[in-house]
Specification:
- This protein has 417 residues and is α/β, with parallel strands linked by helices.
- It contains eight helices and 28 strands.
- The strands form seven sheets. It has a seven-stranded mixed β-sheet, with no helix packed on it.
- α2 runs parallel beside α3.
- The chain is globular.
- Its EC number is 3.1.3.2.
- It catalyses: a phosphate monoester + H2O = an alcohol + phosphate.
- It is an enzyme of class 3 (hydrolase).
Length: 417
């Protein structure tokens, strides 16, 4: 059957009406793998979904079958969608691969990506809160990915506004709009408060994440070279789901204890610290409970500090803010605000700046004593990890493409807090 499918595809004998869409890549924890995911709006009776890949457009010599997940939106139209996933294996680092996905009914165009070379510096783009209507960062991310300036993209929740809106059509439009970068650079995700509808239905079925965390992909971790990256779901706290919050905490504690990375980066959606229109900063229950804990809800900050987490990125507030290294709101103001050596505490960065229905400007907030830098621009945070002792953060403005907040973090070999 697969041979017949490939023959029909190669001859162009493809039927109308079942368009391949929303193609995107993601990483698992094997450095020679690349996961590819796509959707159709109709089933594929009597044909097999598959992908072909190779090192040139005329040499797509490897073929892999894809799994199929059928799922139904809970809106009035009860639209059914089909998600397909497969994994490319035995990939060589630094090599460009070409690929196409689909079935005998229709094949996608040919995309390409460079398999990340994890022996080289990590170059990441990090942001949250991006809408299909005001996604100001979409075009600069397309350009950065196309120009080979970033290796992986992390979207820290709140997609499309919202993925399930208009019976899921908003989610479709959004995923197709970002396909020009998600199809060429791995796209890693975690959920935000706008992604919880229908028991996270769209989040669970549209995306692919590493499988070492929860089976719905709401928390996970990834080793990329010498960097250990952890994605968490803060909505367990906001939803008062103590069972899930404790399960996630227990997993996180074990994950951090087994962490062999030289750098540790945590990402989540809701902020632990921020400046806003209150003199107390981020003092709402869903913020303080995540940070400090409550009965049945273990706080995260103490564990982050204990296990030597280097960076904590989050979004939710639609602005950019960087903070001094701190613990329990107590900042360590150690000289140069743009250079930290052997930082005594985690460095927090908020980047809810992808572009959505509203935005927060610095003059609308009361800056907290632990706040170091505020920007009112749309764009995305960057993190480059060069080796086990040197990393550089920044913020790329969506309009000018300039880095508006470069900062350096260094540490001695073997440094532990």
């Amino acid at each position: 059957m697969l041979a017949l499918t490939l023959l029909l595809a190669s001859l162009g004998v493809l039927t109308e009406g079942n368009k391949v869409q929303q193609v995107h890549l993601s990483l698992d924890n094997s450095p020679d793998h690349m996961v590819v995911t796509w959707l159709t709006e109709h089933p594929l009776p009597n044909v097999i979904p598959f992908a072909m890949y190779g090192t040139s457009t005329g040499q797509l010599t490897s073929t892999v079958k894809a799994s199929t997940t059928k799922w139904e939106d809970g809106g009035k139209k009860a639209k059914t969608r089909y998600t397909y996933r497969t994994t490319f294996t035995d990939l060589k680092p630094g090599t460009r691969y070409y690929y196409t996905v689909g079935s005998a009914e229709e094949m996608s165009k040919t995309f390409s990506f460079i398999q990340p070379d994890q022996s080289k510096p990590l170059r990441a783009a990090i942001y949250g809160d991006m809408s299909i209507l005001n996604g100001y960062s979409i075009q600069p991310l397309i350009e950065a990915a196309t120009n080979g300036e970033i290796d992986v993209i992390f979207h820290m929740g709140d997609f499309a506004y919202d993925l399930d809106d208009k019976n899921g059509d908003t989610g479709d439009d959004f995923m197709n709009a970002i396909e020009p970068y998600t199809s060429i650079v791995p796209f890693m995700v975690l959920p935000g408060n706008h992604d919880t509808a229908q028991k996270y239905l769209h989040y669970k079925n549209r995306f692919s994440t590493p499988e070492n965390g929860e089976n719905h992909g709401r928390y996970w971790s990834l080793d990329y070279g010498n960097t250990h990256i952890i994605a968490l779901n803060t909505e367990f706290y906001a939803e008062a789901d103590s069972t899930k919050a404790e399960e996630q905490y227990n997993w996180l504690e074990a994950d951090l204890k087994n962490n062999k990375g030289k750098w540790t980066v945590v990402m989540m959606h809701r902020p632990m610290y921020c400046s806003n229109d209150s003199k107390k900063g981020c003092h709402n229950q869903e913020d303080t409970i995540t940070r400090e804990g409550a009965p049945g809800f273990p706080g995260l900050e103490k564990l982050f500090d204990k296990e030597g987490v280097d960076f904590i990125y989050y979004a939710h507030k639609h602005t950019y803010e960087r903070f001094w290294p701190m613990v329990k709101g107590d900042p360590f103001k150690t000289g140069d605000p743009n250079s930290f050596h052997n930082a005594p505490a985690p460095i927090y960065v908020m980047a809810g700046t992808g572009g959505c229905h509203d935005h927060i400007f610095p003059n609308e907030t009361i800056q907290q004593p632990y706040s170091l830098k505020q920007l009112g621009n749309y764009g995305y945070a960057t993190l480059r990890v060069f080796n086990e002792t040197f990393a550089v953060g920044g913020f790329v403005d969506a309009l000018s493409k300039a880095d508006l907040d470069p900062f350096v973090v260094s540490k001695e070999i073997g440094f532990k807090r």
